[in-house]
Fold these 3 entries.
Entry 1:
Amino acid sequence: MIPANKASKQPRFIPFGYKLMITYMVFIIIPVIAIGYFSHSMYEDSIRVQTRSNIQGTLLQMKDNIEYKLSDVERISNMLYEDYSLITQLRIYEKGWDTYERTTKIVRPKFSIAVNATSLNIAMYIFLANESFPEIYHGNFLQERPDLLERNYNLYHLSRIEDKVWHRNFPAEQFGETMSWQRVERDEDFGRISLLRRLVDSQNPLDLNEIGFMRFSVRIDELFQGLDYSKIGEGSALVIEDEYGRVLYQSGVLPEGEAHGEESSHLYLTIQESVGQSWAMTAYVPMTVMEQDSAKVRMFILLICMLCLIVFTFAGMFISRYFSIRMNKIVYVLNAFREGELHKRMGYRGKDEFGQIAAALNEMGRDIDHLIEQVYMTQIEKKEAELESLQAQINPHFLYNTLSSISRLAQFGEIEKLQRMVLDLAKFYRLSLNEGRTVIPIRSELEQVQAYMNIQTTKFGDAVSIFYDIDPSIIKYDTIKLILQPFIENALEHAWFGNSIHITVSGKLHGEDIIFKIIDDGTGMSLDKIKQIFDPVEGLNTGYGIRNVNSRIQLHYGSKYGVSIGSRPGIGTTVQIVIPAWREK
């Protein structure tokens, strides 16, 4: 038996396996049930939307087919309506041989061409106000048989229809637009419909005179041949109604008691499209078709959900404990350490094995972070020492040259120049020392350049000239000291030839950088010479001051900043210095 005091010291916590199963039950099984329910609801809505979209597309195809045939008949009417030569002949009221020739050689051929210029079986009736043209017709006017007149025409006088209601009520003429589809005369008996349109004399557009009337009778089953209810589903129906709600054509059968045009959302999905100018095409799709599909999907989703629940339940019982949330936390912290984010910590406070791992990882992160900080501070100190060393290497060289010049002035007794040079030298070193600071304001750097140039103009007089082009907005920023003077000194020592030399110092703000340029009109240098200057091996005895400034800038600001040189022999040299626009505290 285990002693009571030892048993009481053992940590008490819920085993990891139970924790994993409880989490699994909450975050896996419940979402599966919710997903199954919402999937079914969304699928039912999707079926409705998809069915409506598919039927809408089918109806648009049917609509295009019908409107194509309607426009084909209207095109035939336009052939006669817009034929100016035909209208001209119909205006001539002469009888005799001329009328016979016009009828047989001009008028009748145009009518024959028009009635046969389509694939539809059209029966055409022409009524002319000019009674000098003889009537030509087949059959009896009162007992017409349009089915026997297909692809042919009858020519009547307009007086035959002047008392007809459909002619008297025909809309007022608007040139090129007035036409109407109606069932007139015996159209309904023979399952037909007619396009009615005037023939007008357009010689005076403000006074359109009716010189005739046209009627193009078409079989309804031929006009609506593409209208088939089976294309949208069994049990469906398609109905075409005119502007007065009268049924022109129907494909399929609706149950008794279902009125056309009424919304029957409990039994049918109703979709409507306009056809032509004023007709309506309505599709009735029974809801039972969609409900059958919905029931199949409902059963399928239910089976899938049940299968997922069974599989997930058994899988959760045997999944390794190492795939727990705590293990993911450990992996996350380790990845953060690998990426350099050593401030990441684990907040797990349990007494089990994960608590011990978390404590060890947190302690390791603190130790590594502290070690890196120590190394970083050491590197900073080394970098500052390098900067001080480079700075110390510049000043003695300039001081030696200046003291040599002072010595020559004293030798020749030029006391005034000697005094100015000593004062400028003192000012230069006062600004250069700057209480031991490496970073100085740009204003002070420019004052150093000016003090240096005062010394040079004292030595050389008007042979040396300098021009300043400084953007006032850069004055407020800081720079490391002595980055301009070495290049001016280099130009005076190595680029000067002839009687004089001109130097330009510019400073501009470019985005988040400051760009200085020192431009001279001296001897210039070759590309190989420039490459040699920046090569630490080949340029060991050449361009020391240039490399010095470039190294100090990159040590302080980074490798993206520094010095670049552009030059052409015999033309001059441009030195560009780029530093960031910083104000250091």
Entry 2:
Amino acid sequence: MLTNLRRAIFSTPGKIIALIVLVIIAVAFGMADISGVGGGAASSSALVTVGDKKLTEQELQDRLKNALDRIRQEQPMLDMTQFVNTGGFEQVLDQVINGMALEEYALQQGMTVSKASIDGQIASLPAFQGFDGKFSQQRFDDLLKQQNITADQVRADFRRETLVQWLVGPTIGASQVPTQLALPYASLLLERRKGLVGYVPIGAIDPGKAPTAAEIEGFYKKNTARYTLPERRVVRYAIVRPEQFAETAKATDAEIAAAYKANAAQYAASTRRNLAQIIVADENAAKTIAAKVKGGTSMADAAKAAGLAPSTIDNAEKAAFARASSDAIANAAFAADQGAVVGPLKSPLGWHIVRVEGIEQVAGKTLDQVRSELADEITKRKEAEALADLRAKIDGAIADNSTFDEAVAEAKLKAETSAPLFADGRAAMDGEAPDPALAQIATAGFAMETGDDPQLAPIGQDGGFALVKTERVIPAAPRPLAEIRDQVTADFIRDRQLQGARKAASAILAKLNKGTPMAQAIQESGLRLPPPQPLDASRGQLSQMGNQLPPPVRLMFSMAEKKAKMTAAPQGGGYWIVWLEDIEEGNAKGNDALIAQTRGQLGQLVGNEYVEQFAAAARKAVKVERNEAAIARLKAQLGGQATGGN
């Protein structure tokens, strides 16, 4: 897990994306919660000062929380302590300082972002759009209120992001790589290596006698982290779903009749037509084409003679066709018989020649025929309105400082208390996947602290929501030995076997490097081991397979010829021994496609490196002051290493 975390945090693309997006990430990723993650109010003292801007402890905690939430999408059990202790703290701090430095540098160069430009970017975010796809001021205000941030803070983040993009955009593009530089790298992709791999599984090692109580206790103490449960939280919640209003939201006969009357045109008998159309800019040319079509020439041939092509409109409705042409043209086309040619008639687009290819009469629908359809629409609308009204009522109660219990009582909801939950909503480490609603409730609970006001969290995709309050935080702690003694005993034996496998693999490795053939070295181990297997791969295959590349193959491409190395198998399954027999050098000369691909990849790396160097230069050009003592204190606190005191 820690390897995956480091890869997610420290990959070059990850660093560059984070550098560009910076502090706007909370908004751009759907208004992730930015409440504090510490056990109490964080200090407002500055950790970093750049120009006249300061980074406080609370602000850095907010950024760390956002970064952790994103990584939790792939690693739900990850907690803040693990995140900080695997390098996340330094990475996020560095990103934020880079952002502050680049913004300050941009301002020193006289760069500005207009308020209109910022507001335009905000309005384009899906997070702030209503059901009609347009910017919703109400949704914008509600989301900001939920996240306890102001519009000015959002605009400041957008301004910073825009300035940074302006600065680093050209830098990323400065990535031209000459062919001579790309050739040796392209040739390297064609390099081929051959060898053998042997395997010493732990199952081949005698497990030995049963461990003593002292051995088990010592092993448990030495490996406490292995048996530590991540942080859990007890959450109080009350769920509101649309179906809770099903009875009161039922459509009445009067409502159904009114809806039918309001949409009478939709249910009335109508005509649909298949039309062929030619639009010509010149009136005389249009008259010539119309005359040919009326004389029996096909639309396609008449249009082709003029260097044009007809368009077809299937199942055209009069109103829609009128919007695309004009009322006069639509009236004429829908009054003509099948096969008739209309025009030329003028619209803002030009002169239209229209031929009626087919006519379909669509029968009207009676009230009884659409009663069920209308009833469903009305019921859903009334459910959504009731849901929105109750949400607004609860939101108002929270704004008036109502407690969770008071808000639940006033809304006449059923309050529930969860079992201690992990961040992904499970109540047990090896439990089944939780109900999706409970998983969303757990996410909300982990975004709050016990002293925070209750919050509304979306549930599902139908507009449902839950009122959530974090009741209790259970810190990460090792499980009692008495509770997991059997597991610890099995782990002790497995660890003993793993050490035996390592010892056996080391002995085989030593013989290989002294010239003993692998098959003979394996046989002389005295263990029942699988026979050696051949390895044959090119370096290009490594990049194609990515994380799916077997460790022995990866190891083979980091070795010297006629040498052996060993590497651990995943999940403590044993050890592989790799012997590299032969290296065939590649030559990409004349392989234009591979060279071009390599140039592109190197160009991206060069561009990314330029961005990092540009950011470093910007930090030197502006005044960056770090409060190292405060930074170290906060890291220790979040990493579970704080000892208390000032």
Entry 3:
Amino acid sequence: MVILNRPLRFIIATFLACLPLMSFANQEVDSAHVQEAAHEVVAEGHHEGAHAEPTDVKSKIKAFIGHHVLDSHDFSLTQDDATGEAWGFPLPVILWDDALHVFSSAKFHHGKEVAESNGNYYAINHHDGKIYRTDASGTITENEETGFPTNVRPIDFSITKTVVSIIAAALLMFWIFTSLAKSYAKNGGIASGVGRIFEPIVLYIRDEIAIPNIGEKKYKNYMSYLLTIFFFVLFLNIFGLTPLGINATGNLTITFSLAFLTFLITNLTANKNYWGHIFWMPGVPKPMRIILAPIELLGVFIKPFSLMIRLYANIFAGHIVLMSIIGLMFIFKSWIGSSLSFGLSFALSILEILVAFLQAYIFTMLSALYFGSAVEEHHHEEGHH
């Protein structure tokens, strides 16, 4: 049985590692078509003095990477560069612009057309992926000094790719832990089914993260949040490795929200010793306490800020690097360069799976560490100093 399990595990690991490679699912264009397009660009813009062919390919790759890391109002699975036709599925657009506007993102035709709703016209700005009110021709004017659009931007409540991934992660977590709780009730505290996979992770978070950092007396008050934040970040990271182009934890607003929750829980549940240690640190000379107080207070805000930036930067950079390496296959146009690029991207994809777990672990560990410092009971005897 052990011999049979090893090939199965290898196949599963290989499949997961190849998922990010599938996100570059654009249909290939042979070299003749690429050269023909390059000659057209040269004919139209030869006065610029640039190398049209590599510039064109690189610009396409750069645009694809930019589209991949940004949020979107639809899922684009693949695209035919020759015809410009794209395949995917739309998402609902919900706007408030003096009135409620609800329509399908299919009206935008992947950002190429203007959508009309109740007499108003809306277009997607390709630079930031946001929706702006325009005229019937979809004109978006930009400020000459700042470069930002001057069009009216409606309040956007749309269900985007990031929102879909968040809902999917929440539903998945609800199903997993509901099944785990039911299996405990039926089998006398023994997990069954899918719960057997996640029970060791739950126990690890309790025994190796919560109890050592918070303490046996108060760790239960924070276990629900620690479990939620770990699996939420983990599932979103895993979703980011699929061909759907999801980059939720590479979105600064998402990581800010998660870090802000940790900040609120830490400071709202902190005891008087925690605040006393910040504003009037025991064990140091009194003049130094005045100097250290603003530094310690600044640390209260630096801790969640580091949580936000760490998760965002690691996931965002991982997506950029992986997509850039995959894009090298289209630049090299040779079996040697493409093979090297594929092998490197394959190895990096496996590393990204590790990073997905590692970042969830680090976020949970640091949150538990902050909670522990907030509820720790200090016993200082200032008479000895």
